[in-house]
Specification:
The complex is a heterodimer of chains A (664) and B (307). Chain A has 664 residues and is mainly beta. Chain A has a single domain, classed as TonB-dependent receptor, beta-barrel domain (Maltoporin, Chain A, Beta Barrel), CATH 2.40.170. Chain A is 7% helix and 55% strand. Chain A is built from five helices and 31 strands. Chain A has a 22-stranded antiparallel beta barrel. Chain A is globular and about 70 Å long. Chain A starts with a helix and ends with a strand. Chain B is mainly beta and 307 residues long. Chain B has two domains: 177 residues, no CATH class; 117 residues, Immunoglobulin-like. In chain B, strands 13, 14, 15, 16, 17, 18, 19, 20, 21 and 22 form a ten-stranded antiparallel β-sheet that branches. In chain B, strands 1, 2, 4, 5, 8 and 9 form a six-stranded antiparallel β-sheet that branches. Chain B starts with a helix and ends with a strand. The chains are: A mainly beta (664), B mainly beta (307). Chains A and B meet through strand 11, strand 12, strand 13, strand 16 and strand 17 of A and helix 1 of B. The complex binds copper (II) ion. The site of copper (II) ion has 6 residues of chain A, from strand 13.
Chain lengths: 664, 307
């Protein structure tokens, strides 16, 4: 084992790599942000991975080394940033807060967008991600496509279709935009339909099908030479989605995400741009267990989440100093119900709220500054201060476990971070630190008998939980030249009042599958360590190698392992280009999970290795760029499940995929 | 442009109206339970120059605990009596002519602020064709005693939260436990109020009917009613709730405790009645095991409720 580790390390060090300077990229990003508000066209990284050009949002996110996923099926994976669950990160769409309506986390925000209405995903680690609100793990901002005014080519569009053989996943994605000097319109349509997938033993995994429809529309109007208004909407509908790892499926989930934005750019003066957005989104989520006749109890579990919000951003730049100030405010109402049906259906149904009408109101101001000390070094620093207010409409539900707990709770959430980066010739270094608070999520604070099928406990929220406080340090070092790059990133979190479920000696389970009741409690502290190593090497002009190695370790106050911490994992890929043909192959896998957590329902997950292959061909069809791709994931049809597969459900076996993309 | 805005607005309206309606929590509980706040007249009788009227919640006597207000008005002077000695005795006669009563307050208290005589009765059954309740009242005015015997109707109590039970304790005495509150429980901590009564075995031979010494009941003092609420529904697997408190006697003579209901539906209040010496007079300890699919066994002293 150690030998293998050493070998892989050697491989990385030996082969050097394309030191993709992440810090440097961030720097570029802020420039892009500025030029974006100046309404200038910016070509962004496409939403596709090395292996696959037609990917889901989840697959795209998975290509980032600090994201891992809890998977409950083939659909709507829960992104973990820095090995922390989704309540520890802020996930936004263009800075807008959207909150899922499912108590069982069937609907992370990433499930409400489609790859063809996004232009990029902005991932920030730790307190650097405090721009959109309080966080511990960092932020994931899904950037929507936004076509600039006055393009020479007025109409643009793309159509993508494909078929994945393993689960008969058929998809059609189309998007089009119109751009004139005064008016811009963006639209997209997407439809996906998949049946059950099969695992590496060619056994069908029941309840893993999904159907998703997504549409988006954006209309922008230039109100003056330096200002514009924009109206945007996303509509997403998922129907008949199976969650093989859960005791329930989804009948219907619908989301409407709308916003109106006003942008003003200034040519002179300190302020460069002002960007104000008001938004509204509503989600409804209806689970369905009629597909599971084996369940002892039939129950309805609908959930709703409605959010109103405002965000206003100003960019300031003076000489070598630039600054971004953002005001965030939102109000969310989350309600979830459960209704259990007795065996004798003529008897009275049993009703309770799993989220008893919980309001979260947040207002915060964030400032991030970049000071270019010299051409070689830069200091980034910033902070935010937020007020988080919770109100439980039916606080009497919370009183059952926490007698007399107040109906309202106000928290102050501060955040600070600073980082220094230095470039010397081909080398780059960075070091930084952060401090920040986060408020408990709706489930952690106010959840009521929410069944967790992973450890098989019913979870009870605690409104009196203290803020989770994170102290973090990070560092990176890299090297880059024309042929190879290598980049190492490391971060360490010391999290005070770490929120996690602990067995309660009170009460008894409500859900029949459950074995006990857990209450969210604060550990004194826990620690998390993340490490990643990235490398790339241009072996020939048309042959490139890429590799990633990640390692993480999470421990609680008693040195016990935290759950859902990714074991040592690796990914290595080769890309070969021959005229209009290109070939990709990659190998990825996790080593055996040594540091698993039986206390939180984990068992040891064995190692696995997956081999993928793909080839694509680019050609012109009546002067339109067209790409066809054929490939296979898990070529060797390995039977495996990862450390973060809920209930050890097996992953997909061999999957041959084809897709076609047509641009006009 | 206008069309698009129209389109967006149309979707907005379509989506913001939910596909399935949210549950109205308040009316959810009201589908099963009606709560009564208003006292209104149940019966009124005339005796000579006096009019006697009895008010109870919802203008009805129900099986179980009934709090009532009695007023006596002199119809000549139109004044209500306030210095009278008022006695109250309900008697039921069954089909073979046996008489019995039920826990009640015999000497009514006068409430001078609200100006009525207050009492209670815990009717042990509701009126049927063959079994009828009769009220035997007496009052005094100007040193004269007036007695009345009038039939009343006792209705079945639909609200199971006001159920009652009768049993014989291990001390050989006959006991009555009647639920008084909450009338309309919530999924919450509920203050649970019950009355515990004992039939006083008469020591003397019966005198002229109705002889109150034959129909005497007392409020039991210094007992403890140990509580373990559970859901009887088999699929709920003997589910219980946390933070319940046993019922102890308060200044009002009634027993007060805390019951937490975690969801609506059928619940069983499993009791064990303990006397002042710590002896269990009735009731068995129930299993705390979670047994999905199997109905939990009830205590042999229990009251079923539903909300
Ligand atoms: Cu759900």
């Amino acid at each position: 084992m150690m030998r293998l580790l050493a070998f892989i390390l050697l491989l990385f060090v030996g082969l050097f790599t394309n030191a993709q300077n992440t810090e440097r990229e961030k720097e570029k990003d802020s420039v892009i942000a500025l030029s974006e508000v100046k309404l200038i066209s910016v070509v962004k990284k496409k939403i596709e991975t090395e292996m696959k050009m037609a990917v889901s949002v989840d697959e795209f996110l998975a290509s980032s080394e600090n994201i891992s996923f809890i998977k409950r099926g083939a659909y709507a994976w829960e992104p973990l940033l820095n090995n922390m669950s989704s309540e520890r990160s802020t996930i936004t769409i263009d800075g807008m807060h959207v909150f899922g309506a499912c108590t069982d986390k069937m609907d992370p925000i990433t499930s409400y967008v489609e790859s063809n209405n996004l232009s990029a995903i902005d991932i920030k680690s730790g307190q650097e991600g405090n721009m959109h609100g309080a966080t511990v793990a960092g932020s994931i901002d899904l950037k929507r496509k936004s076509t600039p005014f006055g393009l020479s080519k007025k109409w643009n569009g793309a159509y993508q279709t494909g078929y994945e053989f393993n689960n008969k996943h058929f998809f059609n994605l189309a998007n089009a935009s119109y751009s004139s000097d005064k008016f811009v319109a963006d639209g997209s349509l997407a439809y996906r339909n998949a049946e059950n997938y099969s695992d590496g033993n060619n056994d069908e995994v029941n309840h893993s099908q999904f159907t998703k429809f997504n549409a988006s529309l954006g209309l922008a109007y230039k109100t003056s030479a330096l200002s514009s208004v924009k109206l945007e909407a996303i509509y997403d509908e998922a129907k008949d989605v199976g969650y093989p790892a859960l005791p329930m499926d989804l009948w219907l989930s619908r989301a409407l995400i709308t916003s109106a934005t006003y942008k003003q750019v200034f040519e002179n003066g300190l302020f460069k741009a002002l960007d104000t957005k008001i938004y509204f989104n509503a989600i409804e989520h209806y689970m369905d267990d009629t597909t599971r006749p084996e369940n002892l109890v039939h129950m309805d579990m609908p959930g709703w989440s409605t959010t109103y919000g405002l965000l206003s951003k100003a960019n300031i730049k003076k000489n070598r100093f630039s600054s971004e100030i953002q005001l965030n405010a939102y109000n969310n109402l989350s309600t979830a119900e459960m209704r259990m049906y007795p065996q004798d259906r003529s008897e009275r149904t049993m009703f309770a709220y799993s989220w008893p009408g919980v309001t979260t109101t947040f207002a915060g101001l964030s400032i991030n500054n970049a000071w270019e000390i010299s051409d070689k070094s830069q200091l980034n620093f910033g902070g935010s201060l937020g007020i988080n207010y919770n109100h439980s409409k039916y606080v009497e539900f919370n009183w059952i476990f926490h007698p007399g707990t107040p109906q309202e709770k106000t928290r102050i959430l501060p955040s600070l971070h600073a980082g220094y980066q230095l470039d010397i010739n081909n080398f780059n270094f960075s070091v930084g630190g952060g401090y920040g608070h986060r408020a408990p999520s709706v489930s952690e604070g106010y959840g009521y008998y929410i069944y967790n099928s992973f450890d098989r406990y019913d979870y009870i929220g605690n409104p009196d939980l203290d803020n989770e406080i994170s102290y973090e340090g990070n560092a990176s070092a890299g090297y880059k030249d024309d042929k190879f790059t290598i980049q190492a990133n490391v971060n360490y979190f010391y999290i005070e009042n770490y929120i996690i479920g602990r067995i309660l000696s009170l009460g008894s389970p409500m859900n029949y599958q459950s074995i006990g009741v857990k209450g969210y409690t604060s550990l004194d502290y826990s620690t998390l360590f993340n490490f990643s190593l990235n490398g790339s090497y241009s072996i020939l002009d048309n042959l490139h190698w890429n590799g990633t190695l990640t390692y993480a370790r999470g421990k609680d106050e008693n040195e016990n392992n935290l759950p859902f911490i990714r074991p040592l994992s690796y990914q290595t890929s080769l890309h070969y280009q021959y005229h209009k043909l290109s070939f990709q192959t990659s190998i990825n896998g996790d080593l055996e999970q040594i540091h698993y957590s039986p206390e939180y329902g984990e068992d040891q997950t064995p190692s696995y290795t997956i081999w993928n292959l793909s080839a694509d061909y680019t050609f012109r069809l009546k002067n339109h760029k067209t790409v066809v791709q054929v490939g296979a994931e898990n070529v060797l049809n390995e039977y495996y499940s990862t450390y973060a597969d809920w209930g050890n459900i097996p992953r997909m076996g061999r999957n041959i995929f084809t897709s076609l993309k047509f641009n006009f | 442009m206008k069309k698009s805005i129209f389109f967006v607005t149309a979707i907005l309206i379509a989506v913001t109206s939910c596909t399935l309606d949210k549950t109205d929590y308040e009316s959810e509980i009201s589908t099963i339970v009606t709560e009564h706040f208003e006292y209104s007249e149940v019966v009124s009788f005339n005796k000579n120059d006096y009019q006697i009227s009895i008010e109870a919640l919802n203008g009805t006597f129900y099986k179980g605990f009934n709090d009532f207000r009695l007023k006596i008005i002199n119809t000549q002077t139109n004044e209500s009596l306030n210095t009278s000695e008022v006695t109250f005795l309900p008697v039921i006669t069954n089909y073979n002519g046996n008489n019995s009563s039920c826990p009640h307050r015999y000497n009514l208290d006068y409430n001078s602020t609200e100006e009525y005589y207050s009492g209670y009765a815990v009717f042990t059954s509701y009126s049927t064709d063959s079994e009828n309740w009769k009220l035997h009242l007496s009052f005094t005015d100007n040193d004269q005693i007036y007695t009345i015997a009038e039939e009343i109707i006792v209705e079945e109590q639909i609200n199971m939260n006001l159920n009652m039970t009768t049993f014989t304790g291990s001390d050989g005495e006959q006991y009555f436990i009647a639920l008084i509150a909450p009338q309309k429980p919530r999924i919450a901590e509920n203050e649970l109020v019950a009355g515990i009564y004992r039939y006083d075995q008469p020591s003397d031979e019966a005198g002229t009917f109705p002889d109150p010494s034959q129909f005497s009941y007392s409020e039991v003092s210094d007992y403890t009613l140990l509580l373990d609420p559970r859901m009887p529904e088999p699929s709920m697997g003997n589910h219980s709730s946390p933070n319940n408190e046993d019922l102890l006697q308060d200044d009002d003579g009634l027993y007060h405790g805390i019951v937490n209901y975690t969801m609506t539906g059928n619940w069983t209040l499993n009791f064990r009645m303990q006397n002042q010496y710590g002896e269990i007079l009735k009731g068995t300890e129930v299993s705390t095991e979670f047994t999905p699919g199997i109905e939990g066994t009830r205590s042999d002293l229990h009251i079923d409720i539903l909300f």
